[in-house]
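Exam revision sheet. Question 4 asks you to relate a sequence to its structure. Input first:
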Amino acid sequence: MLVVGYDVLIGFEKHLTFFIVQKLQRVCLRNPVKIEASSKYSTVDTLKQQYLFLPAKHKDCYFVYILTEMSGSTSMVFTCTCDATRLLALILRNLGLKAIPINGHMSQSKRLGASNKFKSGECNILLCTDVASRGLDIPTVDMVINYDIPTNSKDYIHRVGRTARAGRFGVAISLVNQYELGWYIQIEKLIGNKLPEYPAQEEEVLLLEERVSEAKRLAVMKMKETGGKKKRRGEEDYDGEDIDKYLGLKEGKSSKKFRR
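Answer key, structure tokens:
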């Protein structure tokens, strides 16, 4: 009986406290506004979010297709590894696109240099990892592409938050292959919304396969060539060369073979 009586007393005290708080609100506050916080992670209304389900073997073709469809837009592309930022930058530059990587293997000065090239419009595609992108002051980004789906769903919110800022319109497109579907489902659960599919034309995508494959072959060769050089202790990545020199191309020039 003692335990039951104690529970009743505690319940009465809680009810009394709630009643007193409500009365104080009515007496002390003028035109109070009640705000309810949602437990879901939300994104802004000006952000258009889409996904594209694709086979892993054609991911690069779909990636290039989207960039060409959205040509002229400023785009941040997120990958899960530093090597992927470098490889994709090489592929895109071989195809004549103005892309530049930024990742944790680059020195602070190189990261700032890449960021400045992107902000100035010298390059309109920035390939980055989650870690390298944090702290960057880039006010206007038209599009975010999740080339790799993040394994941590909350990273998705940080990524897409790079666009549609200060009332501007923005687009976020996630490339989802058969191995990443589980991670993508977790993202939809987190944001509490099922996203529409990006309307890609498969026939047009596959027309890019030969050009993209050749661009990738040359990019892999370049990666092996630069990665095979031994570095002395304390020597910067990319051998201290300018980023454009590392990419194997002079500014504003691309191989004629890949020009349309």
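Marking note for examiners. The radius of gyration is 25 Å.
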